[in-house]
Amino acid sequence: MGFPGSFWASWLLLVMVVSVAKGQPLVPAMFIFGDSAVDAGNNNHLDTIVKANFPPYGRDFISHKPTGRFCNGKLASDFTAENIGFTSYPPAYLSKEAKGNNLLIGANFASAASGYYHTTAKLSNAISLSKQLEYFKEYQERVAKIVGKSNASSIISGAIYLVSGGSSDFLQNYYINPLLYEAYSPDQFSDLLIHSYSIFIQELYGLGARKIGVTSLPPLGCVPAAITIFGTDSNDCVAKLNKDAVSFNNKLNATSQSLLNKLSGLNLLVFDIYQPLYNLVTKPTENGFFESRKACCGTGLLETSILCNAESVGTCANATEETGEDGLQPSSAEVMCGQLRKAKETTSQNAFTLGGVLFQRAWLQGVLVSVSDDAQGRFVLDDGTGVIHLSLSGDFLHRNWKIGMYVMVVGGYFVLSGEPPMIKVHKIVDLSPFPDRESMWYLEVIEAFRLFYQPLYEE
């Protein structure tokens, strides 16, 4: 998730309570860990579809070119670096810029789709937090060879550390993973995340970190994709998800205080981004925005990753009027996230079998070619490469679905032995009001998703 840079700047200024001397940063270096909110390009170098290395990402960045940041411009961590006096940004550790003297101002280890829970990063082949710490250890060895152990130690101890996590754990793992959702209540799952957070901070402390800032969860239920998947037709924020976020944040604050009492010399600050973002979404006009319930990309309902791209029909012309850029990333006039255009051809590991049934997440768009006239809720969707059966239930059954409607479907992809594949629909959205979609781009998206959601049949 991406957050407004002014929020980060505010807490840093409050912590430091000093002014930046011209040409002299407040700290010797800055290190960033976490997820897409602060990934400066590490995912460019991974075998993952979660990338942002193509237009229109980066359209408002200094170079006006995509860098791998999940934003149209600067990240919150970029604004933070500027506000504490740096004239350049800590390089993404896996990038070619992360070498020599460039490393002396720190490094960015963050990876989009990573999280506190141990399987979250694996779902998208992102860099786990434990692996990010391994890279940090490697960084220390590299810098020691450049400036010597003593100077390297001074850089490490005097640096500021930013950590962003938790959103991917809930939105891209727990809420859509029936194995986790059945095994743990939201409260129990947040306990697991907090335990991992505590371990991570202690390990970071053990590696020399003393000034650490960590973000709380945003209002998860106000993220455009969350409203589309879990919300109702009222288009309001999903109260249950926001409640989960508040519960997590309370635990985060309590655990952070415990760590402060436990670890000598540690300066640890939890920055509350929940309330500022909630106010931004629920009172957009008061904050200078026109639209808060829809993202800037495409229909604004769900598009992110490869569904959110330069050709997305309906993408807003002025991102400063939208509080959300794509379906997962909130934005502001300073920090906004762009759209994806192509996907890396890779097979998803996000699949499992349960009771002889293959389950996999599905996220498709296509045309309804058959609609049942009974109460069974069995529809057939043509996604451009073939057909797949849909199973609808609940309120979706009572809507006026018609053959020829162009829809977006999110749900569970099931494959039973001897049966045709079927999607148990969690959400279906009529996209027919957007008829001018680019057919070639549409086929490209379908091809990518066929690869991403290629079923792994049980023997």
From TrEMBL:
<dbReference type="InterPro" id="IPR050592">
    <property type="entry name" value="GDSL_lipolytic_enzyme"/>
</dbReference>
<dbReference type="GO" id="GO:0016788">
    <property type="term" value="F:hydrolase activity, acting on ester bonds"/>
</dbReference>
<protein>
    <submittedName>
        <fullName>GDSL esterase/lipase</fullName>
    </submittedName>
</protein>
<dbReference type="InterPro" id="IPR012340">
    <property type="entry name" value="NA-bd_OB-fold"/>
</dbReference>
<feature type="signal peptide">
    <location>
        <begin position="1"/>
        <end position="23"/>
    </location>
</feature>
<dbReference type="Pfam" id="PF00657">
    <property type="entry name" value="Lipase_GDSL"/>
</dbReference>
<keyword id="KW-0732">Signal</keyword>
<dbReference type="InterPro" id="IPR001087">
    <property type="entry name" value="GDSL"/>
</dbReference>
<dbReference type="Pfam" id="PF16100">
    <property type="entry name" value="RMI2"/>
</dbReference>
<comment type="similarity">
    <text>Belongs to the 'GDSL' lipolytic enzyme family.</text>
</comment>
<dbReference type="InterPro" id="IPR035669">
    <property type="entry name" value="SGNH_plant_lipase-like"/>
</dbReference>
<dbReference type="InterPro" id="IPR032245">
    <property type="entry name" value="RMI2"/>
</dbReference>
<dbReference type="InterPro" id="IPR036514">
    <property type="entry name" value="SGNH_hydro_sf"/>
</dbReference>
